[in-house]
Each structure stands twice: as structure tokens, then as C-alpha cells.
Amino acid sequence: MKHGRLHPLVMIALVVAATLFGRILPTWTLSLATVAASNALIALGIVILARTGNVSFGQGLFFAAGGYGVALIANAWGVTDAVAQMVIGAVCGGLLGLVIGPLIARYSGIFFGMLTLALSMVLYGALVKSSALGGSDGFNVGRPSLFGMVFVDPREADFMLYAVSVVTTGLAGIAATILFRSELGLASLAVRENNLRIEYLGISANRVITINFIIAAVFAGASGAFALMAQRHIDPQFAYWTTSGEFVFVAVLAGYQSVAAVFVASLALELVRSFSNLYLPNTWQLVLGVFLLGVILFLPRGIGSLWIREKRKRSKPAAATPAAVRKGVAL
Amino acid sequence: MNSFLTIVLDGLIQASWLFIVALGLTLVFGVLKILNIAHGSFYALGAYIAATAVTFVAAHSLPPSVGFVAMLASVALIASAVGLLLERGLLKMFYGRDEVVLLLVTYAVFLILEDVTKLIWGVNPIYATQPYELFGNVAFAGLYYVGYDLLLMPISAAVGFAVWFGLNRTVTGKIVLAVIHNEEMSVSMGVRVNRVYAVAFAFGVLLAALAGALTAPKISMQPGLSSDVIILSFAIVVIGGLGSVEGAAVGAILVGLARAASVHLVPQAELFMIYLIMAGVLMFRPEGLFKREAARRI
């Protein structure tokens, strides 16, 4: 974050420009960009959490919690306002994160990933079998409105959703850049480097992980709300592990250095997905897999490393085997 | 009483093929320290290859017993080749990276194999039921069981014993254990660690594909098979303790029984039960039930 540090006002101007840019985008790009912005939001949460060295393979848990929470409340009380739905999603995700975060902060590495994955699959298993929530078919919700305005023209409705999701994700991105420079953000990096030394400095590593985990859960919940508004339908697939896998994919593609990279990565993924759907039907997972391998191989620090150079080269253990690195990490 | 017996038998039948899958996963983790997300894809690959072999044999009007042998032989051959190729051609490039990066590499392999199987075998369900009738039916305590299902139990026990024996009572096994214990020291003692890695990974793939082949006559092969199996086998190895052979056995039996019990008693809770057990075990014993001191993972 040393380079390209922008003034928050400049970043706000960028968000406004991106929102207005939606007016001149063709309709198909508009819905694609909405999905990309919403996925960027949840991936941003994964990046924030990954700064502590823990990768969550179960963000689908909070994604689904946000989506189902919004869908149920929307259908029960007729809440159709897009901003209200986003807030409800974020609150649902956040509340669940508040319960799970402190429990899960004790784990690290592969066990952290496995436990998050297991919890999301617990929710998936429960949702598939709950006939009250439509089982594996899920159920539909109505069109979202905004501040009392109802959009009949589909193009206007698409733009409204685009605007709300871009503004939300943009604000979350600005908040993240501030967070990264804050005491908590720097402590997170230190937790990743060495969580024992952090404890000696009087900072609770568990607390740092928990707070980051809850932030990630809030973002995931809001993202689930956007996914729901975009599809106007929800099903247990929201919580399935391959859904979470895609979000981790975006985070890896972005790398852990730049917030802007998350948006670029998310947009890139959506573009690859729609083009491979168009030209190579039934093989987009194959394209995705090759793409992922290519990124890990050639851009190990994500596409953010294309424009951000790290000043300080981290001393990398020059080991040739995964086992040796494990030891290096454990020390 | 009868339903209790049914649950136990069904659970053990489930456990026997789950154990073979989980054994491969836990071995690969023990030796290479890679949690292989693509493991379920190798299971699916084995099942699909087996189906092709069985159909081919049936089309040439040979007896189903030939089909049974052909299915196991072809799967063993192709799976070992695929495993060696993947380890030497792909995984090798990523050694030395973070364990989460290796997890993502196997996730990419999972995504690729998912579509490759779709491209080769299509998206419609495929069946290979001929060998299933091979061993007749068995009446047991007033219940009728398919002989093939019951046969899975001794096969699984034999595979488990062979792996245990191979690891603990042969020179090769001792070398593998040495690599697991400390791979730097093994290198300096003249062990070709790279070769151990390649063989261990190929063997893991072989076990997954073998389980796929053995279950192929029982199920219908269709997309989604691999992601279901990987989630089950993750649960098993995490319950038992990553890298532990005994743990994989106990985990498989627990998961098999849990599945059978919920299918018979509360069908709504089937998936839920298994992940709940896994989450519960992780909460109280984060390293799994059978985790020994870190140095000896198998």
C-alpha cells in the first residue's frame, strides 16, 4: 500500500465515476458488473481475513446467511428497499460471524480452512433438507426498490442495483484501505508473520483474527444480499463449498496487496466466465482451473503485483518441499 | 433390533469404500503435506473408467467376472499413470509454496478434471451394474444383502491391512515413514524424496480410483459425484486426524454409521449429521481423534 496511496476523496470520486459509468454500459455488461462488484465485496472480506494468514473456505456460510436472512425478511414483512436489504444481509452475516468468530479464531492454517468449510456445509446440509425454505430448489423474492421508487423498466432496475452494489463495494474498499493502514490492519499482518511475538507485544492474536473474521462475515452477508437481489431467487447452492471456492479464487487472483486488485480480479473472473459460457459451453470450470494455475504459477502475489511492487523483499525459505516450508511457518 | 442391525451393516458397507478413499487422502497428506481437493475427482475418474471397462466387456458378451477384473485392472493402470503425471508434471512446480497455495492448486485440478470427465463421458448418468449381480444375494439374520456389498468389507479390510503392513513392516514403508518424519534428514541419508513423493501421490490417486471402481456397479455416475465424495472424505480424515491410517478407519466407520443411521431414522438430517460430527470433533479435538505427536503422522 506504500505506492499508489490515494486520498480518500479521490477514491470517493472514483466510486462516483464508476457508478455514473454504468449509464453508458450496455445492459449485459451492467448485470455482469453488478455480480462482479458483489463478488468483489465478499472477496475483499477474504483478503482482509487472509492478512492474518487464515484463508476461509466457507464464506458461503455468511453469503447464504445474508441471502436467506434478506429473502425471509423481504417475504415476511415486504421489505423491498435495496439499501435496507443490503444492511439486513450485512447484519445477518455479522451476527453469525459474531457467534462463530471467537470460536474459530483459535485455529489456523488448514484447520481454519477446513472448519469454515465444514460449518458452511452444515448450513448447506440443513438448507437442502428444510422443506419450509424450499429445500434444494430454494424460493423466489420480489424485485428490489430504492427509497420508495419502484423500477418497472428492467434497464433502470439493473442500473439501480448496479449503482447500489458499486457504491457499497466502493465504500467497503475505501474502508478497507483505511483499515489496512490502521493499528488493527498492521497487527493483522504481524499475526500472519508470527502470532507468538504479537502476543509478547501485548496484542491478542485471537482478538485480531476475530475482528477481521467478523468484518469478512459482514461483507459476505451484504454480498449475499446483492446476489439475492440480482437473481431474485435463493437456493442452498449459496452455501455449497464450490461457491466459497470461487470467492477464494477471486481473492487469490487479486493478491493481498491492493484493494483495487480485488475489483479487477472479480471483473476478470466474470468476463472469463461469460466468454467461456459463450464460446466454450460446459467447460468454464476447465478454463477457470487453467486460469487459476496460471495465476499461481506466474503471478504468485496476484494481479495486484502488476502495479504494486513490494519495497521490502520478504525473506523466503529456500526450501524445495512443502514440508520444509510448513516447518518454517510453524516456527 | 432388526433396524439396528440394518443400520450397522449399511454403515459398515458405506464405511468400507469410504475408508479406501480417505486412506488415499490421508496418505497424500501425510507424505506430501497436501490436502488434495482433487481427490474426489480421482474417485469419480475411477468410477467412470470402471463403467467404460464394464460396458466394453459386456458389449463383447464376455462374462461379468471378466468385467469385474477388467474394471479393476484398467483403473489401477490409468490411475497410477494419471497420479505420476500430475505429481511430476504439475505439483512439483509448486513445492515450497504455502500449504494454502497447494490447496488451491489441487482446487484448480479439481475444476479441470470436473470438466474433463464431462467432456469424455457426457453429463447423462452412466451405469455399470453387471458385476453387481456377480456374487448373488445373501440372507443374513432375516435380511437380504447383495453379496457384492458384503464383499466390499473384506476388500476394504485387506487394503487397510496391506497399507499398514507396507508402511510398518517393509523397508519401503520405513523409508516412507522416514520421509514423513523428517524429509531433510531423509535426503541426507540418501533417500530419493522426490521419488517417494511421486509414488505416494500416485498411490493416493490409485486408492481413490479403486474405491470409485468398486462402487461403480452400485451407483449412477454423473457430474457432482466428485464434490460429494471429497466433502465426505474430508470429514473422515479430519475426524480421524489428518495423516493417520487408524484415524481414517475410525472416521470412515463413524461417518458410515452416521450416514446409515440418519438415512434410516431421520432422512432429513443426512448431510447435516456428518458435518456436525466433523465440526464437533474439530471444536474439541482440532487435530482429530487419532493425532499423535506431530513428528509421526502415519
Protein described:
The complex is a heterodimer of chains A (331) and B (298). With 331 residues, chain A is an all-alpha fold. The two termini of chain A are 27 Å apart. A two-stranded antiparallel ribbon of chain A has the order 1-2. Chain A contains 13 helices and two strands, in the order αααααβααααβαααα. Chain A has a single domain (8-317), classed as ABC transporter involved in vitamin B12 uptake, BtuC. The longest helix of chain B is centred in the N-terminal third of the chain and has 31 residues, at 2-32. Chain B has helices at 2-32, 39-59, 64-89, 99-121, 147-169, 171-181, 183-188, 193-215, 225-240, 245-264, 270-284; strands spanning 137-140, 143-146. Chain B contains eleven helices and two strands, in the order ααααββααααααα. The model of chain B has no long low-confidence stretch (mean pLDDT 85). A two-stranded antiparallel ribbon of chain B has the order 1-2. In chain B, strand 1 (137-140) and strand 2 form a beta hairpin. Chain B is globular. Chain B is mostly helical and 298 residues long. Chains A and B meet through helix 5, helix 10, helix 12 and helix 13 of A and helix 4, helix 9 and helix 11 of B.
Kindly list the characteristics that best describe this protein.
heterodimer, A: 331 residues, mainly alpha, ABC transporter involved in vitamin B12 uptake, BtuC, two-stranded antiparallel ribbon, 13 helices, 70% helix, disordered C terminus, B: 298 residues, 2 strands, 3% strand, globular
